TrEMBL record:
PANTHER family: SERINE PROTEASE FAMILY S1C HTRA-RELATED (PTHR22939), SERINE PROTEASE HTRA2, MITOCHONDRIAL (PTHR22939:SF129)
Domain of life where this protein originates: Bacteria
Protein name, entry field: Trypsin-like peptidase domain-containing protein
One Pfam family cited in the UniProt record for this chain: Cu_amine_oxidN1
Boundaries of every Copper amine oxidase-like N-terminal domain copy: 48-153
Species in which this protein is naturally found: Paenibacillus chungangensis
Signal peptide: 1-32
Gene3D superfamilies noted in UniProt: 2.40.10.120, Copper amine oxidase-like, N-terminal domain (3.30.457.10)
Record InterPro entries: Cu_amine_oxidase-like_N, Mao_N_sf, Peptidase_S1_PA, Peptidase_S1C
Keywords noted in UniProt: Hydrolase, Protease, Serine protease, Signal
Amino acid sequence: MNKKWYKALVLPTLAAGLILAPVGNGASAVYAASTSAVQQEKEIGLIFNGEIMPLTTPIYKVNGATMAPLQELAEALEATVIAEAKTGIIIIRSDYTTISLEIGSKDALVNGKTVSMGAEADLRHDVVYVPIRFLAETLEATVEWNAEQHAVEVKTWDYVSDEEYEEWLEEQEELPQLEMLTPSDIVDRYDESVVMITTNNGLGSGIVIGEDLVLTNYHVIEDATSANVHTIYYDDVQVKGVVTWSQYSDLAIIQTEEPLDVTIVEISDDYYASKGDPVVAIGSPLGVQNTVSEGIISNMTYEYGVRYIQMNAPIDSGSSGGALFNAYGQLIGINSFAVMETSADLNFAISAYYAADLLDSMTEEELENAAFLPPSLPDSLAGASMKEIEDLLEAEFGTVMTSGGETELTKWKAEKDHEGWLVITAQMDPRFYMYYGVSTADEWRMWAIQLGHELHRMLPDDKIQVRIQFQRDYPFKPRGLASDEVKPNGDGKWRVQYDIIDMQLMDQMYMETRF
C-alpha cells in the first residue's frame, strides 16, 4: 500500500497568467443588500480553527445558505483556486479533491461527480461567494453554528485531530510509570503473538488480539477469498473470515477456524508514544517471518484525520499488519506502509487508538457471521458485454489517487476492433495532465501495470489495448503535433487528441507513455 499526502501545487504566476484568470479577491468590494432573498440580520462572523477570521467582504445568508468569499475561505482550507477565463469555470484543488463550479449554478463537480451546493455560487462586486458548509465539508472540515458569538465555526480535520491529540497527551501524563523493557524482552513476550498471513492475493502480518482473533491491515485482507495464519511454531490455521473492518483507518479483525495458543496482545488507547521514543517492530517483510527491527518515533502525522506514527524502524512489503511496540511492551501501532526509494526512513504505523476503537465496536453478530469481503473485481470477464466492462473499469479504476491529487478518468469505452483486439479507451482530465502529468508519471505507469495485471487475470485469452487519452479543444491550431493529433472540429476550434498511455498485453505487456 502506498499512501501519500501532499499539498496542492500552486501554478507558477506566469503560467497561470497565460492559461487562467485569477478569481477576484475583492478587497475593495462593498457589501450591498440587494435581492429580497438575502436575509437582513446582524453581521455573521467566521471562526476558523478557534480564531476569529477577518474577511475583506462580509458573510451573508441567502435562502438558508450562509455564503462566504470563496478565495479567502479556500486559502484558509489550504486549497488553490483558479478560474478559466474563457469558460468561467472555477476550479478548487486540495490534496485528493477537485471541485469545479460556475457562477449562477447550484451544482458543482466534486472529483467528477455532480453535487448540490445548496445555493448558487454568486458574484458580488468581483467577489465570488460560495456556501460555507458545502466548501468546508467537501474539503473535510466541520461546520457548526456558534450562537454565542453569532458566527459560523469551521474546523479543519487536522485541527480537530490536534485537539484530540492534545487531550490524549494530557491523559498520558496521568498514566502510571511502567518498567522499561529491552528489545529482547519485548521479543520474548510477544514474538509468538505476531503472525504471518497469506491470502490468495499476497501476504502480510497480523497481531493476535483474542483466542481466535487477529488484527491486521484492511488492505492485507481486501479482495481475499481465502487466507491462512502462520505462527512461529509452524502452525498453519485457516481463516474463517473478516469479523469487522474500517477502510477509513485501514484496519480489519479476522477470525481463525481454530484457537491460536499464543499470548494475546492487549489493545488500549492508553499508551506511551512520543516523538523520540524507542520502538520495536515485528512483522514478515518480504515473507521473512517475524523479523524484528528497532528504531525511534520520528514524528506523529495525520492523513485525513487518521493518526500515523512515523518511525525509522525498517519495514517492507509483508510487514503490513505487524506490531509496533513501545519500550514498555505496549502496542502503539499497526505497521502499514513505507515510502520507498528514499534515504529518509519514512515508515508508518496506524495508531493503536483506532484498533482499540474497532475492537470496542465489534458485535456478537459480527463474530458469528465472519466471512470474507466481497471482491471488488470478478474472477472473470468472459462473456461480459462491452457496457459491463466499461462500467466495471470506471467504478474500480476511474478514480486515481496521485501525489498531485485525485483525478477522474472519464468517457470509458470498450470495443473489439477488426483484428480481434479488445480496445479500451478513457480520457484523462486535460488540466490535471498539464499541471501534474510529469510529476506523477511514475505513479501512472504503476497504475497502468496494475490495471493490465487485473485485465489479463480476468481475460487471460484476450489481446487487450488500453489507451488513456488527452483531449482538449483550442481556439487556435496548436503547432508541433502530428497531423492526426490535431484536427478542426467544425466550429472554428481545433481538437487535440493523443494517447498519454498506450498499453498492450496478452502474455506479455508493452507500454508507451507521453508525460
